[in-house]
Amino acid sequence: MVSLGCESVSAERVADRIAGVKEVEVVRVLDKGVDKAVEEGSRIVERMIKDSMKIKRSGVDLSELKLAIKCGGSDFSSGIISNPVAGRVADMIVEGGGTVIFGETTEVIGAEHILMRRAVSREVAEKLNGFVKGMEERVIATGVDMREGQPTPGNIRGGITTIEEKSLGAICKAGSSKLMAAVDYGDLVTEKGLVFMNTPGREPEALTGFAAAGAQLILFTTGLGVPQGHPISPVLKISGNPETCKRLGKHIDFDLSPVFYGKESIDGAAKKLLKKIIKVASGEATRSELIGYEDPVEIYITGPII
Amino acid sequence: MVNPADNVAVVLEEVKKGESVLVRSGGRELRLIAGSDIPFGHKIAVKDIPKGGEVVKYGEVIGRALSEIKAGDYVHVHNVESLRGRGDLKLRRE
Which site among B42, B62, B69, B83 would you substitute to test the A interface, given the most A Cβ atoms closer than 10 Å to its Cβ? Predict the structure, then answer.
C-alpha cells in the first residue's frame, strides 16, 4: 500500500484488515520523500513477485469462479450479440454452481421490471428497484437531463438512441437465471448464482466495485472496442462488431464476428467463450494486460468532495 | 428485428436513401424503402409511428417519437426522446 501519510483514510487501519488475509506492506511518501518511497516500494514488490512465483497451481471446480460482467463502449452490437453471448456464459456458470456479478445501475433504467420479475424474493426485487430509483432520483434532483450523459456520445454514434434502449440491451448480459441478491457498491459477494451490485456505469468505479466483491475475472462486452483493463481483476474483452474487431483487434480477447455474419449461434459462441474464460482463469494473459492498459482505478464517490 | 413486436429494426449494413432494405423477423420478411441515409448499426422504422407514439425494440418501449415517423425512416436521437432521467422535464413542470 502506498500512503501519502496524512490522508483521511488511515492506511494502517486498512493494512491491518488486509494482514488478516494476506501479506501487506505500507510505504509512506511523507516519511522520506517520493524518490525513497518509490525505491522502497520497488524493493518490496520485487520480493513479493519472487515469492508469488513459488505458488503452485491446483485444480479448482467451476463453482469457485466469481465472474463479473460489464458492458462498456456499447453500440448496436452490444444488445444483439455480445451481451446475449455473455448472458449464455452467465447461465452456464450459474448452472455450474458459480457466481456471476453484474451492475451498472444507470443502465438498468428502463429494464428494471424485467430483472425484478426474476428476483428470487420480493426483498431482492425491492432492493434492486430501490437502487435504480435512487440513481434516477439523484439525476433528476440535479435538474440534469440524463440525455446529456447517458447514452454517451459514443453509444449514440454506435446507434443507441435512449437509455431505455441501452438498458434493455445491457441486461442481456445477465442471462436468464434467477437474481439471488442485490448488494451495495463494494460489498463482498458470498452468494452463489446471479447477483446484482449497485454501481455506476463508468468503468474505473464499476470494475473496482467488482474486484472488491471478489470477482477473480471480469468479462467485458464492447461494441466500440474500448481498451479497459483493471490491475486487480483481469478484464477479458469481447465484441460483436466486426469492424471494431478488425480495427481494434489488439484490444479484443474474443471476436464474435462469426455470430454477426450468421456463421455461429449465440450458444455456440458462448460455449467457446467459456473455454477461453477457463484458460484466463488458469493464468492466460488478457489483451488489456498485454497492452498495459489498467488505469485508472477509482472508488465510487457519492457524496460531495470537500 | 429483435422481437416481432418491435416497430424498429437495426440495419446491419450502411443504407443509402432510396435503397430497398430487407428486414427479417422470425420467419417473416419485409421490404422497405429507406427514407434517408442510415448508418451501419442504426435503426430503421418498420411501421409508421405517430408523433408522440411509442418506439418499441426488444418488445419494450425505448422512447417516444418527437415527430411523425414513416416506415423506412431513419430512427435516432433526432426524432426519438427518452422518457427516463428527465430532470429537465421536472424543472419545466415547476
Answer: B62
Mutate to test the interface with B, among A81, A162, A224 (most CBs of B within 10 A): A162
Number of domains in chain B: 1
Kindly provide the ipTM of the predicted complex, given to two decimals.
Answer: 0.92
CB A158 to CB B41 under 8 A? yes
Q: Name beta bridge partners: A66.
A: A99
Rounded CA gap, A157 and A74, in Å? 10
Residue B86 pLDDT level (bands cut at 50, 70, 90): confident
pLDDT at A255 over 60: yes
- Please name the residue ranges forming H helices in chain A: 11-19, 29-32, 34-52, 76-77, 83-95, 112-117, 122-141, 153-157, 163-170, 203-213, 242-247, 257-260, 266-281, 287-291
Closest residue in chain A to residue B58, using alpha carbons only: A168
Q: What is the pLDDT of residues A79-101, one digit of tens each?
A: 999 999 999 999 999 999 999 99
Q: What percent of chain B has pLDDT over 90?
A: 78
Comparing alpha-carbon positions, the chain B residue that sits nearest to A113 is B60
Helix (H) or strand (E) holding B87: helix B87-93
| Chain B: closest CA distance from residue A19 (Å) | 43
Tell me, yes or no, whether B3 lies in a domain: no
Domain presence at residue B1: no
Residues of A in contact with B81 (CB under 8 A): 147, 162
pLDDT tens digit string along A290-302?
999 988 889 998 8
CATH number, domain containing residue B70: 2.30.130.110
Residue B21's domain comprises: 8-93
A144 touches B at CB < 8 Å: yes
Domain boundaries, chain A: 2-52, 62-291
Tell me whether residue B35 is in a domain. Answer: yes
* Residue in A with minimal Cα distance to B81: A162
